[in-house]
């Protein structure tokens, strides 16, 4: 299935040119949590790679994090280059909302060479591929792979990057949030999280520290590597089914799995439902978002600590 990330619906005022899973803040928070839990060898290893093979200073950065720690700045790089590198499909996988658990690889192309401006692959196959390069590649390729891994681990823990309801991962589902029209995907990428940060006057490092303190008892379990990437995908997919879609009111029907060329039909249907995102949904969403961000940070640290044991 193919999902385009740029939209032209004029009602979606303020939506950036590309969809950024977790937005800038979410990806930075995942990286901040991971950085805090890198062992000394991993910390030195990532710093050496990211400093020696620095991001091209001429690259336009959507999140404006060029001056951040190289590890934090790397967290959003993959979104900035996905058009140029043809890796847009690496950021998600369209697992249908209405299916029982099975091998997620059946919803995923293997990573392949660039053809017609695009590289085959999905979030799962790309993460496997880039972890392999990080283990065995040359320095330049390892630095590039590291930037992808930092980003894709974050993407995997956003439920709408591993869910689809014939709606491009919620991009076609129109909702009202704080008296403005947006879409479900954008709401989960940034709308709810950024709203909480603003309301609570929290910086990204403040919130990362707060989450780390609250969930630190789970670090050994979440960072252990006992679960496969495939198991991670299914656990997050289920959150999307149960909560991201499941708590919408009025409910959005489960759709048959099919490729969607544009959002016109689905957005017309969901606009007619007049879905309003209220305090109960926001509260439930944050109760999932907070452990998901922390889990992503811990798991990212665990992956990198195993690269540099």
> Tell me about the biggest sheet?
3 strands, mixed
Mean pLDDT value: 92
Overall SS class: mainly alpha
**Architecture in CATH?**
Orthogonal Bundle
Please give the share of residues in helix.
Answer: 40-55%
CATH homologous superfamily? P1 Nuclease
CATH class annotation: Mainly Alpha
Q: How many H/I helical runs?
A: 12
Low-confidence stretches: 1-18
- Write down how many β-strands occur, each being a DSSP E stretch of 2 or more residues: 3
Form type = globular
Looking across the biggest beta sheet, what order are the strands in?
Answer: 2-1-3
Q: Note the run of SSEs as H and E.
A: HHHHHHEEHHHHHEH
Tell me the span between the first and last alpha carbons. 38 Å
Q: Please tell me the total number of domains.
A: 1
How much strand content do the residues show? under 5%
**CATH topology tier name:** P1 Nuclease
Radius of gyration over all CA atoms, rounded: 18 Å
């Amino acid at each position: 299935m193919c999902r385009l990330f740029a939209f032209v619906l004029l009602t979606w005022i303020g939506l950036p040119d590309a969809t950024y899973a977790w937005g800038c803040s979410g990806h930075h928070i995942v990286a901040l949590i991971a950085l805090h839990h890198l062992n000394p060898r991993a910390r030195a290893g990532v710093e050496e790679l990211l400093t020696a093979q620095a991001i091209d200073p001429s690259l336009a950065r959507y999140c404006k994090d060029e001056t951040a720690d190289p590890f934090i700045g790397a967290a959003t790089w993959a979104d900035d280059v996905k058009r140029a590198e043809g890796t847009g499909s690496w950021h998600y996988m369209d697992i249908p909302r209405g299916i029982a658990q099975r091998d997620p690889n059946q919803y995923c192309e293997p990573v392949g060479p660039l053809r017609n401006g695009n590289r085959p692959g999905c979030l799962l196959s790309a993460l496997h591929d880039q972890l392999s390069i990080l283990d065995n590649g040359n320095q330049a390729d390892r630095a590039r792979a590291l930037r992808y891994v930092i980003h894709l681990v974050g993407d995997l823990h956003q439920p709408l990057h591993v869910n689809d309801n014939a709606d491009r991962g919620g991009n076609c589902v129109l909702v009202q949030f704080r008296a403005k029209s947006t879409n479900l995907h954008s709401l989960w990428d940034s709308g709810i999280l950024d709203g909480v940060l603003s309301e609570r006057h929290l910086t990204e490092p403040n919130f990362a520290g707060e989450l780390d303190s609250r969930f630190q008892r789970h670090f050994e379990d979440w960072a252990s590597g006992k679960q496969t990437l495939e198991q991670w995908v299914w656990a997050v997919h289920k959150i999307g089914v149960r909560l991201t879609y499941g708590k919408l009111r009025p409910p959005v029907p489960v759709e048959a799995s099919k490729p969607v060329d544009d959002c016109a039909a689905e957005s017309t249907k969901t606009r007619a439902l007049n879905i309003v995102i209220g305090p109960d949904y926001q509260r439930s969403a944050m109760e999932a978002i907070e452990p998901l961000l922390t889990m992503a940070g811990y798991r990212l640290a665990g992956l990198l600590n195993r690269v540099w044991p």
